[in-house]
Amino acid sequence: MSKEPLFERDALRLIGAGPVVLLTSMFKGQPNVMTVGWLMPLSLDPVLIGVAVQPSRLSHEFMTKSEQFGISVPTMDLLAAIHGCGEESGRDVDKFELFRLTPQDPHEIDAPSIGECVAHLECGVIDRRSIGDHDLFVGTVMHVTAEASAFRDTWLPEDGVQIAHHLGGDRYAGMGGAYRASSPPEANADA
Asked: What's the whole-model pTM score?
């Protein structure tokens, strides 16, 4: 198998094909939504997640001022909104209206969740660190909901759920299937 060198920046695309989400925030009654591909689990106890946001983004400003944010997990059915919410600025347009996203009342935070999405996390910001050209927001998960047809202990792609993954630029992929790992066969005792 032949391999060729890439640019260092390409490393981000090689490891960054996790689910893309729609991050919601609100400040002084103004909601905003942006597409995020850089997020990660950080801790099981307490349950913490990290999300990287560029400081020039309106969501960064709202998250900093409100100290909270929501994560809504879209499916491939929302591809136009997923891509568009990453291209448009909330300073110029109402992305909920432009992409026909339904804001839903949250349980623990002020920022709405997105009705068309299959899962929602509500988070309080407990830390923010400047790392390179992005800030890493650490959020404690305060409330979680998911559609039973999409998630029961794991995502259920066999039931037609296509969680969106960002591959870079305008390229996306849907989760195609679930595979179960098996244990390796036991070594032959006579060998």
From this structure: 0.87
Of 155, 33, 170, 146, nearest in space to 99 by CA: 33
Q: What is the pLDDT of residue 18?
A: 73
Rg of the chain in Å (alpha carbons): 18
Separation CA 72–CA 51 (nearest Å): 13
Write out the two tokens for 157. 């792609």
Domains of the chain: 10-148+155-174 (2.30.110.10)
Name the one residue in this structure whose structure tokens are 């623990």.
108
Distance separating alpha carbons of residues 152 and 99, to the nearest angstrom: 29
46 contact partners, CB below 8 Å, separation of at least 6 = 140
Nearest of 71, 69, 28, 36 to residue 53 by alpha carbon: 36
pLDDT tens digits, one per residue of 134-187: 999 999 999 999 988 888 777 887 777 898 998 888 989 887 777 778 877 665
